[in-house]
Specification:
Strand order of the largest sheet: 3-2-1-4-5-6-7-8
CATH class of the largest domain: Alpha Beta
Strand content: 15-25%
Number of helices: 10
Helix content: 40-55%
CATH superfamily of the largest domain: NAD(P)-binding Rossmann-like Domain
Radius of gyration: 21 Å
Number of domains: 2
């Protein structure tokens, strides 16, 4: 009998919704250790086929992914700084990139490589498969980004996009910031499941459903941690006011059609 194949080690810090989602797709390819202070970590790791471990064990793996809220990146990076071996690779999976890239570069030793990433999908939008989904890579330090890109593309079947942290955040302020702003608004309205629906309405409710289970931390990160989000919000609210103004003008001029 041939000896079992030894898998490379990988640590994930954070066993929230996205950390668990990511672990399910990575556990076939790595000896995966999951670190999180929550009390039920053993049960979570067991269901995923991973090992429950400590922050030290996740750092010692050599490849460590931070699946924590953007607001916690600085704290976790400082906690990892003295635990990571020379030559380690650290990645994050947050929805913004300028702030995490800066915090990781400031906190981690020069001997540690850094690649910031943003999977442009999640547990709801990619519940069926991640094949063909997009992921953005932002190289920060070292020359490991090409290897990460090959793994994401060749092994996981993802479409890889490379960008600077600033270019990422500038685009995602609209792509994600505006869509989540609309979705949060419609969730607050509590749209009904009417009988007489159009295709457009059904698609809108489906889009809102993709973010319905997102955490408050994620929404705040998208809207408050992206330096370009205020500009996108202003553009959105300006457009809403313009449309509202057109309708109000038409109401006061009932004989004229709205432009």
């Amino acid at each position: 009998m041939s000896a079992p194949v030894s898998l490379p080690s990988l640590g994930i810090v954070g066993a929230g919704a996205f950390g668990r989602f990511m672990a399910r797709h990575l556990v076939p390819h790595f000896d995966l250790v999951l670190a999180d202070p929550r009390a039920d970590l053993d049960a979570i790791a067991g269901r995923l086929g991973a090992r429950a471990g400590t922050l030290d064990e996740a750092a010692a793996a050599g490849i460590t992914i931070l699946a924590v809220p953007v607001q916690a990146i600085g704290e976790v990076a400082h906690a990892l700084a003295t635990r990571l071996p020379a030559g380690a690779l650290v990645l994050d999976v947050g929805s913004v990139k300028v702030k995490p890239a800066r915090l990781l570069a400031e906190a981690l030793p020069e001997t540690v490589d850094i690649v910031c990433t943003h999977p442009l999908f999640g547990p709801q939008s990619a519940a069926d498969t991640i094949a063909g989904r997009k992921i953005t890579l932002c190289p920060v330090r070292g020359d490991r980004a090409d290897g990460v890109a090959r793994f994401c593309g060749d092994v996981l079947g993802l479409k890889v996009i490379e960008a600077t942290p600033a270019d990422h955040d500038r685009e995602l302020a609209y792509v994600q910031g505006v869509t989540h702003l609309i979705g949060k608004t419609l969730l607050t309205m509590a749209l009904d499941d009417f009988d007489q629906t159009t295709v457009s309405y059904d698609l809108l409710r489906r889009a809102v459903g993709y973010i319905a289970d997102d955490s408050a931390d994620l929404f705040r990160a998208i809207e408050l941690e992206n330096p370009f989000a205020p500009e996108a919000r202003r553009a959105f609210f300006d457009a809403v006011r313009q449309v509202e103004s057109v309708l109000e003008d038409a109401e006061h001029r009932p004989g004229e059609a709205a432009p």
